[in-house]
Amino acid sequence: MTSLVRGSQLGRMLGQWHALPGRRRSPDYVALAGAVRGLLADGRLPLGVRLPAERELAEALRVSRTTVTAAYRELRESGHLNSRRGAGSWTTLPGGHRVASSGLWTPQDDLDMIDLGCAALAAPAELASAARAAAEDLPRYLGGAGYHPTGIVELRTAVARAYTERGLATSPEQIMVTNGVQHALDLVLRLALPTGGSVLVESPTYPNALAALAARRARIATHGLATEGTGWDADLLLGSLRQTRPRLAYLIPEFQNPTGHLMPAELRERVVATAHASGTDLVVDESFVDLVLDGTEMPPPTAVFDRHSRVVTIGGMSKPYWGGLRIGWIRASAPQVQRLAAARVGVDMAGPVLDQLVAVRLLADAETIVSARRAELTAQRDALLAALRAELPNWRVRTPAGGVTLWAELDGPIASALARAAEEAGVRLAPGPRFGLDGTLERFLRLPFTLPAAELTEAVRRIAAVRYDIDRVERPHWREPVVIA
Known about the structure:
It contains 16 helices and 18 strands.
């Protein structure tokens, strides 16, 4: 069934679509069409969505219907809108696109594109040897059917051991292996969140988590993170849990994506206690927990404070190891794991045995691999910070103590416009609104430091060039945009 976006909803998503001086000198219909393309570009407006009727959108934006008609015509001509008389108009994409490694649609000829939309590292050198060793281990499993809904026992044991070493006693029966962290989140939502249920999330937060919640038609409330300090306002966060009493809360306490904040131990304990009192289940995303930088002392896992099976922890190997190794996991009580396995059978049965054997080999060498990743990320983070200080000194950026991203506060509400302009300069960006709801966070930009230092420095140079030109451009020249696949 095709979803429909209302005029008021699209208006909120568009935000200040014609507020920049340079864009005021362009016709409003050009700016409006470009802003819709921008929503497609950062995934806030999915493919196949039916846009509001021309009159409805004109009333919501307080512009003439002629402006909306011309904007829709521009979008049809560029291949971003399909219309049928009497039936409506749907978002689409032009031909000649492919799915990029970041999960975005991208033109086939993007040869010189520096992709800062994807916060992930290339594979470590040890992966090839781990794959060869895993292939030698595989014959032990070939005599069976190959279906392991909770994962092979070797991998569950290795993951459980890692939790125990962090101070959270865990048995293999409390671990379920999944096809990545996003798959883990989807399974937890299927089990714990009824359609239309209420959820509390941080703002900003991981956009694919918002997409998973939208698929459940969740009613989402947000807790805004501060750019300075620890990020979370304890009184506001705990007050939100007490007042809204959501069915579920999704939190990223370790090097929060995208801000990089680290939740202190005292707040973790209070969050768990408050969640229990309000009847809220906590889903804790530990995707970045291994990527601590600068020798920062890590607080205990949030689930350490759980006495009532209220905390479900998800994690995986995409960030410290490689995104192409689709290995994630869920840590929960043993009965919850069995219920998750029963729910999984109706989705994908089980994960690939060979991939899990590769993961076992990599985890056995975790100290060496992850230490090298930390050193690599530290150098790249510092290079990115130095480039920003030199080229864009008016931007405010805090230095994260871990993770893979900077959360930059810009010198104006221009994130979406800057992302569109940067595409022309060969840099793909993830603007702030992609990490929030209804077009907010236009003053922010997520910048991952997962590419080599030279590429990061060149990317900042290109961004700075278009930033200083953006207010003087009389008419934007749109390239084919990218959107979340």
